[in-house]
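## retry 2 of 3
previous attempt timed out at serialization; input unchanged, resubmitting
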Amino acid sequence: GKPLRHRRMLAAAVRYYRKRLKFTQEKLGELADLNPKYIGEVERCEKTISVDALARIAAALKVELGDFFCEVPE
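## retry succeeded, writing output
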């Protein structure tokens, strides 16, 4: 079925903050110590992300964890 709203919101926020810094999925993966393929799957709502992985992404993107739960521009 369709991914839940909070998953879509998270995916959009990760992509938004990543692109804002002009990071590729590879670069973000490297900085967050996560597989870039996994970053892509999270951004496409194909994978559920753990709080730990999300915290690593937040640190790499220099944003607060809570920023991922706010609406971001498309």
